[in-house]
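Postdoc handover notes: sequence design on the structure in folder B. Input tokens:
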């Protein structure tokens, strides 16, 4: 025990994390449109492979609800065999970025963009899983999922099978919401696991007509990508999907690491090493044809709260997942699909940062707008382009706020009019600058002093030079410009 002074704490924490991870691994896989066992494979790799590597000591990795939408779209467009290629390529890119020490730069992404991304993902998950909770087929597009809900409600009301399925899903959500209000001893069992167990028992005891998880077996589910799947790399659409997987999984993992660091007093995360650990895990997942992984804040916070002291807890949770997948795979076939849908609806709801939106609206409305636009763009277009729109808005907002410029005009009634520009003159402020300069009299000499500018971009310089050339009327001295 001296070699492992914290083994007791880590062993107990690993059991808690395993119980939290088990229903989430299965639920994320089913919602992603892949065999349930592949979610367990990713959880196993996240625990044993990524868990052994340096980076973050207490952060736990596995399949994440945040990538569900992207995985579902990728499998629908390219097929399940191509998923392994996408995840493998994303893992290699993460390894490369970590080796180039780019991990720390992910902290430069606007928090509003990340929270907007999570909110958009949450909305799409909720919309899609409401159909699954009713045992219905969800429309392909995100907009279609939302606009089709009223019709789905009408259809569900007239179907006893759909109503039974909805009851199981709603009951699962109710258990998860109320679980946190129970005494601490009862909460030793994670709410998600308790909800799934109760839903499974109710479905069996009442013989409810609800669909259950399809079981293929761990070995049959693992399908390494073949040569045909690698041929898809020539498809530009697949390259865009790989880039989306890489950026979103990396950002989610490193933001999760920052959040987990605030929960404990142990060693801080080494961002570049953590990015390489995530890359190694995704590379292995890709070789096995499994789901992509990220660090997951739900599991990580449960790990810290359960008293974990070292990375042994996350490695052991992967071992428990492996033993379950090897010894009790048939138990998955008893789980009702609407119960998993209920878990994902609850997870999607928690991804929407309602409190942050309200706080931002009161203090930084521009950031709140970026958050909302990012979320809406993800729902209206797709995740990758929605995130790019959010990043573009964030850059424009920052550039606008940084380009403060002041024009001071001194007119003593006689002699030349003096115009002093100070601050940062960029193309974003150019219309205001030119309006003020063009309002100056054209029949008097003007001295334009640019020495107070800290920055003058090319567009602004060219526009000011053109204004100076054409401003003065004939017979008036040309505008004199003092260079910055």
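Designed sequence:
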């Amino acid at each position: 025990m001296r070699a492992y002074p914290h083994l007791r704490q880590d062993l107990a924490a690993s059991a808690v994390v395993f119980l939290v991870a088990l229903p989430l691994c299965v639920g994320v896989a089913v919602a992603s449109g892949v065999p349930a066992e592949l979610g367990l494979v990713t959880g196993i790799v996240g625990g044993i492979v990524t868990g052994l590597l340096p980076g973050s000591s207490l952060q736990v990795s596995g399949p994440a609800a945040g990538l569900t939408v992207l995985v579902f779209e990728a499998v629908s467009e390219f097929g399940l065999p191509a998923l392994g290629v996408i995840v493998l390529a994303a893992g290699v890119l993460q390894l490369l970025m970590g080796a180039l020490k780019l991990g720390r730069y992910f902290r430069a992404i606007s928090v509003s963009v990340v929270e907007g991304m999570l909110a958009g993902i949450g909305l799409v998950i909720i919309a899609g899983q409401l159909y699954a909770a009713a045992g219905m087929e969800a429309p392909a597009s995100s907009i279609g999922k939302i606009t089709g809900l009223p019709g789905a409600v009408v259809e569900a009301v007239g179907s006893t099978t759909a109503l039974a399925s909805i009851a199981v899903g709603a009951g699962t959500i109710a258990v998860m919401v109320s679980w946190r209000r129970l005494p601490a001893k009862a909460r030793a069992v994670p709410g998600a696991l308790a909800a799934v167990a109760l839903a499974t028992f109710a479905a069996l005891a009442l013989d409810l007509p609800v669909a259950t998880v399809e079981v293929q077996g761990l070995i049959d589910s693992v399908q390494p990508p073949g040569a045909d799947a690698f041929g898809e790399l020539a498809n530009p659409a697949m390259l865009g999907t790989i880039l989306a997987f890489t950026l979103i999984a990396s950002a989610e993992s490193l933001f999760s690491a920052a959040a987990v660091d605030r929960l404990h007093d142990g060693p801080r995360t080494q961002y570049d090493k953590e990015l390489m650990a995530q890359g190694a895990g995704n590379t292995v997942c890709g070789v096995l044809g499994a789901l992509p992984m990220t660090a997951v804040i739900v599991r990580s916070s449960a790990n810290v709260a359960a008293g974990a002291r070292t990375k042994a807890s996350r490695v052991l949770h992967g071992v428990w997942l492996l033993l379950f997948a090897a010894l009790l795979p048939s138990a998955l076939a008893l789980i009702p699909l609407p119960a998993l849908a209920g878990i994902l609806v609850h997870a999607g709801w928690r991804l929407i940062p309602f409190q942050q939106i309200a706080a931002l609206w009161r203090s930084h409305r521009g950031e709140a707008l970026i958050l909302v636009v990012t979320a809406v763009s993800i729902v209206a277009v797709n995740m990758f382009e929605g995130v790019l729109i959010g990043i573009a808005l964030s850059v424009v907002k920052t550039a606008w706020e940084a380009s403060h410029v002041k024009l001071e005009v001194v007119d003593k009634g006689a002699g030349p009019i003096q115009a002093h520009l100070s601050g940062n003159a960029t193309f974003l402020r150019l219309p205001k600058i030119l309006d003020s300069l063009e309002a100056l009299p054209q029949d008097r000499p003007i001295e334009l002093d640019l020495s107070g500018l800290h920055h003058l971009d090319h567009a602004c310089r060219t526009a000011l030079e053109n204004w100076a050339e054409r401003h003065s009327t004939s017979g008036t001295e040309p505008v004199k410009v003092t260079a910055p």
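Context for whoever picks this up: The CA atoms of residues 370 and 393 lie 6 Å apart. Don't rerun without checking with the PI first.
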